[in-house]
Amino acid sequence: MRHIDGRVAVDLRNILWCFNGLEITCDNGEKVRVAFALDCCDREAMGHVATTGGITTEDVQDLMVATVERRYEQVNRVPEPIERLTDNDSCYTARDTRAFARGIGLIPPKTPVSSPQSNGLVEAFVRTVKRDYVRVNPRPDAQSVIDQLLGRFAPYNEVHPHRASLYRSTREIIVQTCEALSGL
């Protein structure tokens, strides 16, 4: 396990994942809360859960399972431990959530006390999703927004350029990473 000193970007996929959330306000005043998972290498939005209530520990556990399945198909544990960064919201820090995460191979990294190490990556994702996908699409009510979410994350993964990766999209990063690994 590596020591996180403020730099969250990693050079290989499936080393460090971050889990966090965002809130979307609908035109009718309803709020949709979304928890999501990103890979800190390729910035892929690997999964999300959405609700009009608060994000619960069960929601976070469902997100973890969906994320593992997206990367590894139908498995109940990752092949090698993966570090799991989260904020300090109770749904992520609850004893049940931490035990569940460890049970499927998602382990907390060693981080300095009071260090918001995943903020840059997460904040960039939230800013991009809100600016490029949420703001420009209709948001009449919560159910409409929830139904549209998957369609918002797909273009982010497929075509959105990332400044930190020389303006390559997540898909380009994944392809190049896989090609580099297969050439070893």
Write the layout of secondary structure elements.
Elements (H helix, E strand, L loop, with lengths): L15 E10 L5 E9 L5 E7 L5 H16 L9 E5 L3 H4 L1 H9 L2 E2 L11 H16 L7 H17 L2 E2 L5 E2 H13 L2
Parallel strand pairs: 1-4, 4-5
Antiparallel strand pairs: 1-2, 2-3, 6-7
Judging from the principal axes of the Cα atoms, what is the shape? Answer: globular
The count of β-strands is: 7
Order of helices and strands: EEEHEHHEHHEEH
Instruction: Please describe the biggest sheet, giving its number of strands, its sense, and whether it closes into a barrel.
Output: 5 strands, mixed
Give the spatial strand order of the biggest sheet: 3-2-1-4-5
Q: Quote the distance from N terminus to C terminus.
A: 23 Å
Strand content: 15-25%
Assembly classification: single chain
Radius of gyration: 16 Å
Tally of helical segments: 6
Q: Could you tell me the CATH topology label.
A: Nucleotidyltransferase, domain 5
How confident overall, as mean pLDDT? 84
Structural class, from secondary structure content?
Answer: alpha/beta
Helix content: 40-55%
For CATH, the homologous superfamily is named as: Ribonuclease H-like superfamily/Ribonuclease H
- What is the level 1 CATH name? Alpha Beta
